[in-house]
Predict the 3D structure of the following.
Amino acid sequence: MDLMIREANVGDKIHVLKFCKGTFSWGDYIDQVWDSWLSEGNLFVCENKLPIGICHAFYSKDRIWIEGIRVDPNFRRQKIGSQLIKHAEFIGKEKNISFSYMLIDAQNTASLSMAKSLNYDIFQTWDFYSLDPKTNSHHAVDFEKSSDCKSYTQYVKSWRWLPLDDELLSLFSQQNKVVKSTVDGNASLAIITDSEHFDRTMIVTLFSDHDGATIQILSFLQNHAMNKNYTRIQILTTNKLPKFDTLEHKISFCLMKKYLI
Ligand SMILES: CC(C)(COP(=O)(O)OP(=O)(O)OC[C@H]1O[C@@H](n2cnc3c(N)ncnc32)[C@H](O)[C@@H]1OP(=O)(O)O)[C@@H](O)C(=O)NCCC(=O)NCCS
């Protein structure tokens, strides 16, 4: 087969969305992010006369974030997904980036097998919980003003896991985006961000070290979301969360990592 990988263009959208319609049991989200990924650049298309596969890469200082890998169901198991990832890695290597990351649903055996065949390892497991906004006055949290980030090395920005350094953490603190609760000397901490792709969606990276402290934060988040007119709260964490009103575990994800030699 005569394959070519190139940057996506406006005309690809209709063809790509056609083969992405039924990717998962619930559909797909590519239609919601396509325009933004296209304008960001590094949206790669594999073409065989028409587009038959895509992936998007976001390059930051220390990592490639690979997302949205999709292969037309009629063309799977022909290394198209692998070639798209290798293409994204090649560009990352040219930029002297050392690591590549991607997030895969822990149940997505096809994608996990592909990632493993490309020498990615499971670096961490993250859980995605949803929480409903709700008026709620019982919470004991503080806006953290002076965090040092030794134990908080990454956060989630619009479903991308990105490095968190002191500078960024202090910026978030100034913007009142870091909340902390301490119970019996143990602290839980949350970093609050806005989704860039989905309206009125709050995305929270939660570091939960104590169930009681976490419950205070969850309660705060419900109320904060209500006051700020968010319609949904998405929480990402590596910790098992305590039972809490409207808190629902949705999916477990494997954060895959590869050292690019
Ligand atoms: C996952 C996906 C992108 C793989 O694309 P693909 O082009 O079919 O994958 P490749 O041909 O490059 O596969 C490379 C290797 O991965 C593994 N693999 C891929 N699909 C597999 C499957 N369905 N079952 C088991 N192993 C699989 C195999 O080891 C394969 O090598 P092999 O065919 O020589 O055995 C494709 O199945 C897809 O679009 N799925 C729906 C969207 C999705 O899940 N995206 C990933 C989100 S993180």
Notes: The longest helix spans residues 211-227. The longest strand covers residues 248-259.
